[in-house]
């Protein structure tokens, strides 16, 4: 039984006559190949990556498992080729999810002039140029009654650096809907920061593991690729060990590194690491907690 | 007594009716303020930097000493304001010098559309986009008889990633003029690599020190800023301790970091570090030498 994903926060959405990803109940995610050559480029990446013996095992966990391609009935009703991937949120009941596109430049050097102009415009209008990354979508589970805090795409699209800093705090807060009022100190409480961002298995530790790889790897350059941060609030509170996951997704614009590191991705990653470290430092100062943060 | 610098490898050169830097015999370098507001921007940076108490002492050594500004007779013959700086090569007899412009993007977000278009074109035509840095000039001392290997500006301007890799090797070779012949293994011998790039005081160690600062500092964003690598061959061979220096120059496009790291500079720096590490690894493999490289 195929259906549209429950926890998609960014990207094309399947709908009546609209092509978008589907999931099944066995934990698989079906991503329709995009019409231009992006779809085939993404398949080419997954094929290359899954057979590349130079990828360390501890790095593979950051990528969705690839199950090949399949022609199947798409969300539009007609047959269409799909990339079959691991459904990253299938094991989660109420996942909090954040999608962050990495790199101050989202276009590869060999792209067409029209595509470069389009990307450059988006990079300049978003936080990609100033921050080295931009937010593409997010949802934060509050509780069964309130459900999710999920800012609208139109808001996400217009976020400036201060908004991004605030939303990275809201992602690990029990009160993500709380608005800062003038003269009030009521803001996101960051009560989950040390569980989600901190700790030996937290998001910061995982980003640092990836950073070490990106300082050395010259196999791939990842343009317009995103991080997904995923965690389950219930588990975060119950279990000291973090259940937070970091995954990389969207590989339609990956090119050969040709012996050069992916300085564009690495720069954005280091910037994101600094944002998250700052939140952990502030949180530690406020709470007087915890020895879990490892830098 | 003012004269034109002996060891300038990039930038405007003083000449008949042409504004360019001058040096005196007391070790000072006089850089004329550029006509648009670049000159005043650079003065503003030096003023800010020299009085900023958040700059760690071990980082200051990477910047030229600033002695204020002075209105004086310029290379054109008329009075003109100059920035007075430390002459970085004054203590050297036959310095080998390399000028490397850092960052895949040389324009700041707030620049004019015309300026952005001009920079973007240069970034794309050079190695700035693919490598995160580009070569602006170099000279390598060979010996008293042959003097310097100094590739022409027109050649430097057209270097591709492979040329840059080769020139980074030539910079630390005793035979920088040797050309690779088809089927021949005659290439730059990298005989000085471990003395200049390697070792506890070598260029790689200094770049790693700067990298650690750039991972954390959010005070300045350095656009179109360059590294100068300087060493004296005679000293490199005589003394195991490296005499290689790394300096940062050209601050006409430095902007406030606003709490964000300089991911554009950091990405380019990490890419350059990888290039230099690669040369050291290859050299070690070939020579079976040395324990000097510290990563």
TrEMBL record, chains A, B:
GO molecular function: ATP binding; inositol tetrakisphosphate kinase activity; inositol-1,4,5-trisphosphate 3-kinase activity
Record InterPro entries: IPK, IPK_sf
Pfam families the record matches: IPK
Keywords: ATP-binding, Kinase, Nucleotide-binding, Transferase
Protein's GO biological process: inositol phosphate biosynthetic process
Catalytic activity: 1D-myo-inositol 1,4,5-trisphosphate + 2 ATP = 1D-myo-inositol 1,3,4,5,6-pentakisphosphate + 2 ADP + 2 H(+); 1D-myo-inositol 1,3,4,6-tetrakisphosphate + ATP = 1D-myo-inositol 1,3,4,5,6-pentakisphosphate + ADP + H(+)
UniProt-listed Enzyme Commission number(s): 2.7.1.140, 2.7.1.151
Gene Ontology CC terms: cytoplasm; nucleus
Highest taxon of the lineage: Eukaryota
Function: Inositol phosphate kinase with a broad substrate specificity.
Family according to the record: Belongs to the inositol phosphokinase (IPK) family.
This protein's name: Inositol polyphosphate multikinase
Classification of source organism: Eukaryota, Viridiplantae, Streptophyta, Embryophyta, Tracheophyta
